[in-house]
Specification:
Layout: H1 2-33, H2 40-50, H3 53-78, H4 86-99, H5 108-114, H6 122-155, H7 160-179, E1 184-185, E2 188-189, H8 190-198, H9 202-229, H10 236-252, H11 260-275, H12 279-306
Antiparallel strand pairs: 1-2
């Protein structure tokens, strides 16, 4: 009976692996092949005429740095439980990214990383992943708000009254969170969450913030560099304000990882339209960013998923 049970588990794990990897590649292919806005001939012509060897190297370097900083972030945070190697962190980050590709807002990443640890550590791993993604979201909001304000100065998308109203709502929400921090729902409260965050050493928090900031600057400037390659001529601050606004708005919308480029592409078309950037150029840049920063890591992550060995210990 034990032998059959073990074989059943092995078969189930293999089936899940194949479903994850097969699903990931299917979604990637369907999004790239069936998108009517992607005029591949025009894109190929532009890439051949504008991309130099140095440009390709810079783009690939920024792609590597983006994911490498995320791997360092995870390695740093997991140190709270025990130290892991850079390779182990790479395996967990890329494997979890693959598993979370077709889950809402990458929720599958939480479960994906937890699977690399014993069951008793699941809650800690989910919490650490929340901290890992949380700092990225905080930075996106901070840069996004300032970007939107700067963008609004140039194009007056929203009126000063609306800006004041939005800030009023933000202050109201922060006030409600502050005064209700002791309220608990099923034993959970903001006060307990803050206390739990404070149990992590400051050194780890500081490193997490620096790595998160570095990652934000890397992928936002990768977008900026691609705009320059495609011949977009606009002031640096205006382009960066538009990029940070796009990431802020897009990250606020519920979506799936495999649809991330479509959401960012739609938001980008709206914002870059004010600057006069051609729609298909914006769509291609958003798609290229998705291919570089999601598709390539998922291809590597698929290897780790297929070679995953379940942690049966409880």
């Amino acid at each position: 009976m034990i032998s059959v049970s073990h074989k059943a588990k092995q078969f189930l794990v293999l089936l899940i692996k194949l479903l994850i990897v097969g699903g990931a590649f299917y979604f990637i292919y369907s999004q790239l092949a069936e998108n009517p806005k992607l005029e591949w001939n025009k894109f190929r012509h532009l890439m051949v005429n504008t991309l130099s060897f140095q440009s390709i190297l810079i783009i690939l370097l920024l792609t590597f740095l983006n994911r490498f900083l995320e791997i360092l972030k995870w390695q740093n945070l997991v140190e709270v439980i025990h130290k892991i190697s850079l390779f182990e962190s790479t395996k967990q980050v890329l494997g979890a990214l693959t598993a979370g590709l077709f889950t809402p807002n990458g929720i599958g990443e939480y479960a994906g990383k937890a699977l690399f640890f014993e069951k008793v550590k699941t809650k800690k791993i989910v919490f650490l992943n929340l901290i890992c993604n949380g700092i990225q979201m905080v930075l996106t909001v901070i840069f996004g708000v300032f970007g939107l304000l700067y963008f609004n100065i140039h194009f007056n998308v929203i009126t000063p009254k609306t800006v004041a109203f939005l800030f009023g709502i933000c202050f109201l929400l922060f006030g409600m969170l502050f005064f209700s921090k002791r309220w608990s729902v099923k034993g959970y409260s903001i006060e307990k969450l803050i206390h739990k965050i404070n149990t992590i050493p400051k050194k780890i928090h500081q490193k997490n913030i620096l790595l998160g900031l570095g990652r934000y600057l890397v992928f936002s400037h990768q977008y900026y560099f691609l705009l320059l390659i495609f011949g977009i001529d606009a002031p640096y601050l205006l382009l960066m304000a538009t990029i940070t606004s796009v990431y802020f708005i897009a990250s606020s919308l519920p979506t799936f990882q495999f649809l991330d480029f479509a959401v960012k592409g739609s938001v980008s078309v709206y914002f870059f339209g004010f600057i006069g950037v051609n729609e298909w150029v914006v769509v291609f840049i958003s798609t290229l960013m998705w291919v570089l920063n999601t598709v390539l890591p998922v291809i590597i992550g698929s290897y780790f998923v297929l070679n995953y060995k379940a942690q049966w210990k409880s």
